[in-house]
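Q: Convert this sequence to structure tokens.
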Amino acid sequence: MPPREYHFWIYILSSRSRNLYIGITNNLVRRTSTHRENIPETHTAHYEIHRLVYFEYFRYIRSAIAREKSLKHWTANKR
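A:
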């Protein structure tokens, strides 16, 4: 049996007023579609954050999580 390949993405969404959302997923197309549905009482719906502006691919979840944390820390320091 061949080893299973894993796919993870870190992504950044933005609103017109430049509010950001940073997330991680294993299915980028499905996840961005979910954000565009504007589900009530969610952060992305409240701030109308639905434009995909950046993404990175990772093979290992630990690498993806580490990168997500570094991006969130970086944006917090820029405020």
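The longest helix spans residues 61-78.
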